[in-house]
Design goal:
Layout: E1 5-8, H1 12-24, E2 28-33, H2 41-45, E3 48-51, H3 59-69, E4 73-75, H4 85-93, E5 97-98, H5 103-110, H6 112-121, E6 129-130, H7 136-139, E7 143-147, E8 157-159, H8 165-180, E9 185-189, E10 194-203, E11 209-221, E12 224-230, H9 237-253, E13 258-267, E14 273-279, H10 286-293, H11 297-305, E15 322-329, E16 331-332, E17 338-339, E18 342-343, E19 346-348, E20 356-359, E21 366-367, E22 374-382, H12 385-397, E23 400-402, H13 408-415, H14 418-421, H15 429-433, H16 443-463, E24 483-489, E25 492-500, E26 506-508, E27 512-520, E28 523-528, E29 531-540, E30 543-548, E31 551-557, E32 572-574, E33 579-584, E34 591-592, E35 597-603, E36 606-611, E37 616-621, E38 628-629, E39 634-640
Parallel strand pairs: 1-2, 1-4, 2-3, 4-5
Antiparallel strand pairs: 6-9, 7-8, 7-9, 10-11, 10-13, 11-12, 12-15, 13-14, 15-22, 16-17, 18-21, 19-23, 20-22, 24-25, 24-31, 25-26, 26-27, 27-28, 28-29, 29-30, 30-31, 32-39, 33-35, 33-38, 34-37, 35-36, 37-39
Helix pairs in contact: 4-5, 12-13
């Protein structure tokens, strides 16, 4: 059969990714979108885009969009309906081609308990598990509560002792129901010192089946991957062959056809590996496999769906160099990786070093709470692991980005960490090594950046001047006080004063000579005490976002006159991100203790527990069940517990 028009039932970077390969194959591309995505880049890039009323989970509407737009095949991307057997069945019933494995395989592998049974039948080692929470002691602690029908970290909670189990199960069931429409959960033994290693498989309808080596995805927060690589620093030829053979045994036993991933947990102490699950779709981290093998996995998916044979065997697969992918998220690593929202006023990757940017956003894109907060996947490839890590870190550092809090600096800190570079990348890496969450400038770096920001501001002021615009900035016919600008860089205040010299240069802080060689609305080329550099700059409102050597420094310009405003009430518990009030656990007058969960918020299909910062009593409740709240909104007010002078209540 021939595929000439492909509808991608997804959004963001994966839609753009599928478009890119499909077009090289001469295939016309159709997008579907909801109103909140109407200005997204993937919509504009499609040959045609169909607006959805029911959303990305509306099977019937998506199939109707394919039929009316002339599509003959549907690619699901990942997430949403990618592993929905009912969706795949309905597509085939409508006479369309489903780009993915059979609905039967999806149904079997989508149920994590059935998948474990299939793995055991194929002789693949499995971890102790149970679908009955009352048998937790038999599974053993620590353990994970996992969604039977899900993945991506949703519905997954680590339980270290029996007293935590009931709440973890309840939260997991709610998250699983919201994310997958199936509240079933199960328990599985947790290996604290382990690695998440997965095998990429490819099969066709002619009986051919190969694996494309492994990916390690152990750098995780909230049980979600943020850095992946191929090959794994812990897997040698013998272990790779054993894991590959297990993956192919399982895949062959279920008749796998298309691209898929068999995921394992590798015990770092013993070298034993255990089956986790099969993802019957393209993985977010698939680019690292493409980089080391040279095989375009989207192309293979489309070819297989069209009935073509792979055309190569396991002996034909070869590997070259090392590839690493970092997931750039709108989130705050310093606040427990809570999702962030806002508008990307700046998003400009540097032209060098050359890396692969799979992005769903551009400057001006709005990041809301409706969808996963991933902004882009950044992928490097190098002859060695060290070079691949360095190249990726430098590309991230040189990304000019602003307007939304991201994990960019955390990713760089991880990639440059000695523990990461040595291959010490077990799933507890973040807890053990605590990479720096934010860009930490030295005093000298901060001073230089603040001077650069001040000089850019004076250039902007002169460019916008309507009176005497030809006179140099700060010019006086008598000696008067220097011009001053005050900034806040996070919690750090910094002031810069400058005088214009007769030769056009500036004397800054009565100590530093500065020469502005070139100024534009988005860039400045200046020399500070004979050190010259060019910096990208974005100014919006009272913020200046300045590109420095290790990232983007953000300065808030302190206004000369501050108007009085409302103050946040003392004892107020505020929302750290936008979300929906899922559960209120206290009422006015209740006594609360430090660390007690008071409110449960839901954001991006995950629960976030808001805890009491100190002992006290609930004095005021400002929210109700089901209410949508914005970041920074006051949820409730706590009166602190009064204490005697000796500190006792």
């Amino acid at each position: 059969m021939s595929i000439t028009t492909l509808l991608v039932a997804n959004r963001g970077e994966i839609a753009r990714r599928v478009f890119r390969t499909a077009r090289t194959m001469g295939i016309r591309c159709i997008a579907v979108y909801v109103d909140s995505d109407s200005d997204a880049p993937f919509v504009a890039e499609a040959d045609e885009a169909v607006r959805l009323v029911g959303g990305y989970l509306d099977n019937a509407e998506i199939i109707e969009a394919a039929l009316t737009s002339g599509a003959d095949a549907i690619h699901p991307g990942y997430g949403f309906l990618a592993e929905n057997a009912g969706f795949a069945t309905a597509i085939e019933a409508a006479g369309l081609t489903w780009v993915g494995p059979s609905p039967t395989v999806i149904a079997t592998m989508g149920d994590k308990l059935e998948a474990k049974s299939a793995a055991a039948t194929a002789g693949v080692p499995i971890l102790p598990s149970s679908d009955d929470p009352s048998t937790a002691e038999g599974v053993g602690f620590p353990l994970l509560v996992k969604a039977a029908a899900g993945g991506g970290g949703k519905g997954m909670h680590l339980v270290e002792e029996a007293g935590q189990l009931a709440e973890a199960v309840a939260s997991a069931e709610r998250e699983a129901a919201g994310a997958f429409g199936d509240s079933r959960v199960f328990l599985e033994r947790w290996l604290p010192r382990s690695r998440h290693v997965e095998i990429q498989i490819l099969g066709d309808s002619h009986g051919n089946l190969v694996h494309l080596g492994e990916r390690e995805c152990s750098i995780q927060r909230r049980h979600q991957k943020i850095i992946e690589e191929s090959p794994s620093p812990a897997v040698g030829d013998e272990l790779r062959a054993a894991m590959g053979a297990s993956a192919l045994s399982l895949a062959g036993g279920i008749g796998y056809c298309s691209a898929g991933t068999v995921e394992f947990l590798l015990d770092d102490d013993t070298g034993d590996f255990f089956f986790l699950e099969v993802n019957t779709r393209l993985q977010v981290e698939h680019p690292v496999t493409e980089e080391v093998t040279g095989i375009d996995l989207v192309r293979e998916q489309i070819r297989v769906a069209a009935g073509e044979p792979l055309g190569y065997s396991q002996a034909d697969i070869s590997f070259s160099g090392h590839s690493i992918e970092a997931r750039l998220y709108a989130e705050d690593p310093g606040a427990g990786f809570l999702p962030a929202t806002g508008t990307l006023v700046a998003f400009e990757p540097a032209s060098t070093p050359e890396v692969r940017w799979d992005s769903g956003v551009e400057a001006g894109s709005h990041v809301g709470v409706e969808f996963d907060p991933m902004l882009a996947k950044v992928v490097s490839h190098g002859p060695t692991r060290t070079e691949a890590a360095g190249r990726l870190a430098l590309a991230l550092e040189r990304l000019h980005i602003g307007g939304v809090t991201t994990n960019r600096d955390f990713l760089v800190s991880t990639l440059r960490h000695p523990g990461y570079l040595s291959g010490d990348t077990t799933t507890d890496f973040i807890n053990r090594h605590s990479p720096t969450p934010d860009l930490a400038l030295t005093d000298a770096e901060l001073t230089r950046a603040a001077i650069t920001a001040a000089m850019w501001l004076q250039g902007r002021n002169r460019s916008e001047a309507t009176v005497l615009s030809g006179i140099p900035s700060g010019w006086r016919n008598a000696r008067l006080p220097a011009q001053e600008v005050a900034f806040n860089h996070g919690d750090t205040p910094i002031e810069v004063s400058y005088r214009s010299q007769r030769d056009g240069s500036f004397r800054v802080n009565d100590a530093t000579d500065v020469q502005v060689h070139r100024w534009s609305p988005d860039e400045i080329d200046l020399e500070i005490d004979r050190r010259r550099s060019t910096s990208r700059v974005t100014g919006t409102g009272n913020k200046v976002m300045l590109q420095v050597s290790r990232g983007t420094a953000v300065f808030d310009v302190v206004p000369r006159f501050v108007l009085p405003g409302a103050e946040e009430p003392t004892g107020g518990l505020t929302a750290p991100m936008p979300g929906v009030v899922l559960e209120l656990r206290v009422a006015v007058g209740d006594a609360v203790t430090t660390g007690q969960t008071l409110v449960v918020l839901e954001a991006m299909k995950m629960e976030h527990h808001m805890k009491a910062p100190f002992d006290g009593h609930v004095a005021e409740m400002l929210i109700s069940d089901g209410q949508q709240v914005e970041s920074g909104a006051v949820l409730l007010v706590i009166d602190p517990l009064e204490t005697d002078l000796d500190g006792t209540p």
